[in-house]
């Protein structure tokens, strides 16, 4: 079986975890602080605050920016549902904007949905490709809006030479299938000293000094065990990224010649959390048939995402809305293996199997 994703953990991570276990300091200790400092330096920001996962990172970021009841947050309907869920969890309203052929939010459509209640834009750097941050930041500045980057799939991705998560408040996930992992974990990045201090309280029951609580907060803390893994994974991330990019370039060089398949944008800043193609009507079989064909031959594939957020059962108030690019793409997307553990033989097998579909 060639898996769609596979965490790459080595002896370094194992030793790091054992060292934490031997230390007796398992939660919110020195390793968390070390991981935060290393990640902040990697992204190029003053502060990085570790959280229990990517969802809690997004949730805490919204709370820290005082986004709440009745506020509107502009985002994409084509993402993992957590992007919209956290907006609803703080009492705000997601306002969806269609995507373009990059799978990211179409920045040219944002201004048309801005209202007096709009408080923020939450772009998603989907599959590891940065959203058009130049346009988004210009719109935000013009309309005095906040920007919270959902960079949960884009560790190390760059837009115009600047890492995502450094344009505004950034949120990352370290779920096992991500480009780097801590098992479960998240991170919030910012250059705002006051915001960073507030986030640290939010994720720790509203407390800065132990047993003294300034407001009602949450327990969104990361463990030292997870942070120890993250420190070692971060050291390896540049090499992981290079392998993902090389694998993506090879796949595109072969798949682009196959009629009916559309390859993803090949951008220098893309870190390829997923390598996602479109199976168009010109291909001999449909997307689901191709998925089944690959699965039967031992090649792991996945559909991210088969049902857009605005069509989910959990969002009935949005069922009347239509986003044509999103809805078409959801019927055609198929993600192929691109992770660093793929061999040349694995890549050749993927292409061989796809090429012989009739």
Task: Explain this structure.
There is one protein chain. Helix content is 36%, strand content 15%. The protein is an alpha/beta fold. It has two domains: 11-233, 3-Layer(aba) Sandwich (Aspartate Aminotransferase, domain 2); 237-355, Aspartate Aminotransferase, domain 1 (Alpha-Beta Complex), CATH 3.90.1150.10. The longest helix is centred in the last third of the chain and has 32 residues, at 224-255. The protein is globular, with a radius of gyration of 20 Å.
Give a brief rundown of this model.
With about 350 residues, the protein is α/β, with parallel strands linked by helices. It is built from 10 helices and 14 strands. It folds into 2 domains: about 10-235, Type I PLP-dependent aspartate aminotransferase-like (Major domain) (Aspartate Aminotransferase, domain 2, 3-Layer(aba) Sandwich), CATH 3.40.640; about 235-355, Aspartate Aminotransferase, domain 1 (Alpha-Beta Complex).
């Amino acid at each position: 079986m060639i898996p769609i994703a596979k965490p790459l953990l080595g002896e370094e991570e194992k030793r790091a975890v054992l060292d934490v276990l031997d230390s007796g300091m398992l939660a919110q200790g020195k390793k968390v602080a070390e991981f935060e400092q290393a990640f902040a330096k990697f992204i190029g920001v003053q502060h990085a605050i570790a959280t229990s996962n990517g969802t809690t990172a997004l949730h805490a970021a919204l709370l820290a920016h005082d986004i709440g009841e009745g506020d509107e947050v502009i985002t994409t309907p084509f993402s993992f549902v957590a992007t919209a869920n956290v907006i609803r969890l703080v009492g705000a309203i997601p306002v969806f904007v269609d995507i373009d052929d990059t799978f990211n939010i179409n920045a040219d459509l944002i201004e048309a949905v801005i209202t007096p209640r709009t408080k923020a834009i939450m772009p998603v750097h989907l599959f590891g490709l940065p959203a058009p941050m130049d346009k988004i930041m210009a719109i935000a500045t013009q309309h005095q809006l906040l920007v919270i980057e959902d960079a949960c799939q884009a560790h190390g991705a760059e837009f115009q030479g600047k890492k995502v998560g450094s344009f505004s408040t950034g949120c990352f996930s370290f779920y096992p299938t991500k480009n780097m992992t801590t098992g479960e974990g998240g991170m919030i990045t910012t250059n705002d000293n006051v915001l960073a201090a507030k986030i640290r309280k939010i994720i720790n029951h509203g407390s800065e000094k132990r047993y003294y609580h300034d407001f009602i907060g949450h327990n969104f803390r990361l463990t030292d065990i997870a942070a120890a893994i993250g420190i070692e994974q971060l050291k390896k991330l540049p090499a992981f990224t290079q392998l993902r990019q090389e694998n993506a370039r090879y796949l595109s060089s072969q798949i682009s010649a196959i009629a009916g398949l559309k390859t993803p944008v090949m951008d220098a800043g893309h870190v390829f959390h997923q390598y996602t193609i479109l199976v168009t009507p010109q291909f001999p079989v449909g997307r689901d048939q191709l998925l089944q064909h690959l699965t039967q031959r031992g090649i792991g594939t996945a559909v991210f995402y088969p049902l857009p957020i605005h069509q989910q059962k959990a969002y009935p108030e949005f069922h009347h809305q239509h986003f044509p690019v999103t809805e078409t793409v959801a019927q055609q997307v198929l993600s192929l293996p691109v992770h660093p553990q793929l061999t040349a033989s694995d890549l050749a097998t993927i292409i061989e199997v796809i090429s012989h579909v009739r």
